[in-house]
Design a protein that fits this description.
Layout lengths: L1 H23 L4 H15 L3 H21 L5 H23 L1
């Protein structure tokens, strides 16, 4: 259990600087970039589209990991399901 706690603390400490950077950006920039990657991932066939979708999934997984202790069971299920769906669509795009 202490290994999980120390791993979580390590990720949280390493995430502090990127989170501060994201917070300093105009509020519309992070969602706009995610939407652009999502649209590109859905529109572009093959590996480029799959990579764009994997970037969105990775960002959502990172934020989900950081917020996991505060989420309800339904929130955890929703985050996990969203990431799994994105990765499934990415796999589909990679094979097109």
């Amino acid at each position: 259990m202490s290994t999980n706690r120390s791993a979580r603390q390590s990720v949280q400490q390493r995430s502090a600087a990127p989170l501060v950077y994201l917070r300093q950006l105009p509020a519309w920039v992070p969602p706009a970039v995610l939407i652009a990657l999502l649209v590109a991932g859905l529109a572009v066939r093959g590996w480029p589209g799959a990579i764009a979708l994997c970037l969105v999934a990775a960002f959502l997984a990172w934020l989900g990991f950081l917020s996991w202790p505060r989420l309800s069971a339904a929130g955890r299920l929703g985050r996990a399901a969203g990431i799994v769906v994105l990765l499934g669509v990415a796999a589909f795009q990679a094979l097109r």
